[in-house]
């Protein structure tokens, strides 16, 4: 799937888990991506057929992981083709057997008819008494011919329901009807339905059995229908395979399914890289949102999407039940709460404030104290991710503080993230978030160091990436950041200045408990050099430039 700067990726439409609801809005399919085993709801207009775009995509994407995904598609196609050929062969054999049986039936019918004619001729030559006897027998049995009588007395052929059974129909969706025309419409169903149908939908079985008990139709009809539906399901999956996903972002309900938005009024302060994606997903999922940003022009897009505009942080807090904030650093977080027309001026008993900024534990503890002192409720909820994950609604949320408020934010967290953790008292989430970003920042610096060392020793950087992608370090983060470096594309997905800030705060956290952080300290120095080279507003992967200058 094409997620942001990711290349288009081959996948196939599959059945979603039974407990995963389809998102509201535009028509979409549940897609499994080859090679990654990732799944997502993808809108119809964001899908492209595999074969017409195959060569084009292979030319664009040279990575081995992509080639492996294409190989997996081709292998699946070969297996599917083999199954189809086997099914077609069996169908032809069955057709030949039926034709042979019908031919024998016709011959038998002809013989019966000839015998009946001879018998009738003999009867005509008989005495009047004989004629009377035959007439009496005929009136008792009705007007049926000997052939029809023989058919009535013989057992019904397997798989051929009586006329009243054929009237039982199952409603089909318009999508199934369209796909079923053509190949499936001409498909000859196997006559044998006596064996139980395996792996069918138990919910459908329950529904059908209930209907069967009401209409008292023979079980053979139920088996025939479920058999056909099973084959239809397999056919639909084989037909609707192998799509390229060209959307810049996957649907935000890829993991959480359909979301019932809270009826509480939501406020949001700060529309940066992370905040913008969060607000967009809150609106998509039906939340009522009021927005504010220091640069007011950033609010315009969200006003068009249905958000309301707040003139100051205090106004947003006073008019909303729960107000979220996501700003850059401890100073910005304090200014937002304690400054003129700030959050604190809008806090009244029962008002809720959720700070999603990545700050130190001392800062978040101070903010919690002043909010609670005014009768408000406080929750810290920094997020792990980047701009793309924010846009996709796939952030990881680390929360601490008021547990009841955490529960009240449930629908909001579902809209913006794939999972959330409640970590206890205020300060715990800040500490955990700094540790996570310390590991991430140090890893990024190590990646840059390895790529530059490969270059200066005459090794291929692309080959190094391919090797890493085949090993235990393989990850989306590794692949994306290396691709940024190899392409010289440092458009920010996570600002370099912010990862350096988090490293600095993590080192201070280690100092506060007398714990050594030499790796983080070394990485921090490299980021500081990158900032001196005017890379602050580029992506964190621009730390690479600190090694080549």
UniProtKB/TrEMBL annotation:
| Gene3D superfamilies given in the database record | 2.30.30.140, N-(1-d-carboxylethyl)-l-norvaline Dehydrogenase, domain 2 (1.10.1040.10), NAD(P)-binding Rossmann-like Domain (3.40.50.720)
Its primary localisation, in coarse terms, equals nucleus
Pinpoint the PWWP domain residues: 1-53
Provide this UniProt record's keywords sorted from A to Z.
Chromosome
- Name the segments for region: Disordered: 1-23, 79-175
Coiled-coil ranges from the UniProt annotation: none
User: What superkingdom heads the lineage?
Assistant: Eukaryota
Decide whether keyword Cell inner membrane is in the record: no
InterPro entries for the chain: 6-PGluconate_DH-like_C_sf (IPR008927), 6PGD_dom2 (IPR013328), 6PGDH_NADP-bd (IPR006115), GLYR1_PWWP (IPR035501), HIBADH-like_NADP-bd (IPR029154), HIBADH-related_NP60_sf (IPR051265), NAD(P)-bd_dom_sf (IPR036291), PWWP_dom (IPR000313)
Q: Does the keyword Endoplasmic reticulum apply?
A: no
Biased composition, Basic and acidic residues: where in the chain?
Answer: 79-132, 149-169
Output the GO biological process annotations, alphabetical, semicolon-separated: transcription elongation-coupled chromatin remodeling
Q: List the GO terms this entry assigns under cellular component, sorted alphabetically.
A: chromatin
Recorded GO MF terms = DNA binding; NAD binding; NADP binding; nucleosome binding
Subcellular location(s) per record? Chromosome
Q: Which family does it belong to?
A: Belongs to the HIBADH-related family. NP60 subfamily.
Q: What is this protein called?
A: Cytokine-like nuclear factor N-PAC
């Amino acid at each position: 799937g094409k997620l942001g700067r990711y290349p288009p990726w081959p996948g196939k439409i599959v059945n979603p888990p039974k407990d995963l609801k389809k998102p509201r809005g535009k028509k979409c399919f549940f897609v499994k991506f080859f090679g990654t085993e990732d799944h997502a709801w993808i809108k119809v207009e964001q899908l492209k057929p595999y074969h017409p775009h195959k060569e084009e995509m292979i030319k664009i994407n040279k990575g081995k992981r992509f080639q492996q995904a294409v190989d997996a598609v081709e292998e699946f196609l070969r297996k599917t083709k083999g199954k189809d050929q086997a099914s077609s062969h069996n169908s032809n054999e069955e057709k030949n057997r039926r034709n042979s049986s019908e031919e024998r039936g016709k011959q038998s019918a002809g013989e019966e008819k000839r015998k009946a004619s001879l018998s009738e001729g003999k009867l005509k030559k008989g005495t009047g008494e004989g004629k009377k006897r035959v007439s009496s027998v005929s009136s008792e049995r009705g007007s049926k011919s000997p052939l029809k009588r023989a058919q009535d007395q013989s057992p019904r052929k397997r798989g051929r329901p009586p006329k009243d059974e054929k009237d039982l129909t199952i409603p089909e969706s318009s999508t199934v009807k369209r796909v079923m025309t053509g190949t499936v419409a001409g498909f000859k169903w196997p006559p044998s339905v006596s064996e139980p149908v395996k792996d069918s939908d138990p919910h459908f079985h329950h529904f059908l059995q209930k209907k069967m008990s009401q209409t008292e139709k023979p079980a053979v009809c139920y088996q025939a229908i479920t058999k056909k539906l099973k084959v239809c399901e397999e056919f639909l999956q084989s037909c609707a395979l192998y799509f390229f996903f060209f959307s810049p972002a996957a649907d935000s309900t890829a993991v959480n399914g359909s979301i019932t938005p809270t009826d509480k009024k939501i406020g949001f302060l700060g529309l940066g890289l992370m905040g913008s994606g969060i607000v967009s997903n809150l609106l998509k999922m039906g939340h009522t949102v009021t927005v504010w940003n220091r640069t007011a022009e950033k609010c315009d897009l969200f006003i068009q999407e249905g958000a309301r505009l707040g003139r100051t942080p205090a106004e947003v807090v006073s008019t909303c039940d729960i107000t979220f904030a996501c700003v850059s650093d401890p100073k910005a977080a304090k200014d937002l709460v304690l400054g003129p027309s700030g959050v604190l001026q809008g806090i009244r008993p029962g008002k809720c404030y959720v700070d999603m900024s990545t700050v130190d534990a001392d800062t978040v503890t101070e903010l919690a104290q002043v909010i609670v002192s005014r009768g408000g409720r406080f929750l810290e909820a920094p997020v792990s991710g980047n701009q793309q994950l924010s846009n996709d609604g796939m952030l990881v949320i680390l929360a601490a503080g008021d547990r009841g408020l955490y529960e009240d934010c449930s629908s909001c967290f579902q809209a913006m993230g794939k999972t959330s953790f409640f970590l206890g008292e205020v300060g715990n989430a800040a500490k955990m978030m700094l540790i996570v970003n310390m590991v991430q920042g140090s890893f990024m610096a190590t990646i840059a160091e390895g790529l530059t060392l490969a270059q200066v020793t005459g090794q291929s950087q692309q080959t190094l990436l391919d090797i890493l992608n085949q090993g235990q370090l393989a990850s989306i983060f590794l692949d994306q950041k290396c691709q940024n470096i190899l392409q010289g594309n440092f458009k920010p997905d996570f600002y370099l200045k912010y990862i350096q800030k988090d490293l600095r705060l993590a080192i201070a956290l280690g100092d506060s408990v007398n714990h050594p952080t030499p790796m983080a300290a070394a990485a921090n120095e490299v980021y500081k050099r990158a900032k001196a080279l005017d890379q602050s507003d580029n992506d964190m992967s621009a730390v690479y430039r600190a090694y080549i200058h």
